[in-house]
Amino acid sequence: MFDQLLECLNEQGAGVRAYDACARMARARVSEEPDNAAAYLLLAYVAQRFVESYDDQPLSVEAASEEFQQFTDIVKMLDKAEADASADARIAALNVVAAKLNTAPKTGD
Questions:
Q1: Angle, vertex CA 52, rays to CA 42 and CA 92, nearest 5
Q2: Phi/psi of residue 48, each to 5°?
Q3: What are the residue boundaries of the structural domains of the chain, listed by start?
Q4: DSSP 104
Q5: What pTM was computed for the model?
Q6: Half-sphere exposure (Cβ direction) of 103: Cα atoms closer than 13 Å
Q7: pLDDT value at 8 more than 50
């Protein structure tokens, strides 16, 4: 379900402009898919945080790889919870993602 965001990143090279496009896509999905609004909003936040961290800044291959892996892990977690179709699983996944984002240092600073 959320894997179209990963496809967007892959197709555009997983750079700053790709994350910007991904953030815009996720924000659009918030209103298009209100049942998944919280998940899309968190994904938009992750993508936008990448843009703000690395726009006009050097981006090492290692950092890009780490960021992409984190984004991939979040998408997979949210996809798994969605496939479970349990409201409890969805809420738990959203809470895990939010907590992870709250404690993760903002890269690029």
A1: 15
A2: -65, -35
A3: 3-103
A4: S
A5: 0.88
A6: 5
A7: yes
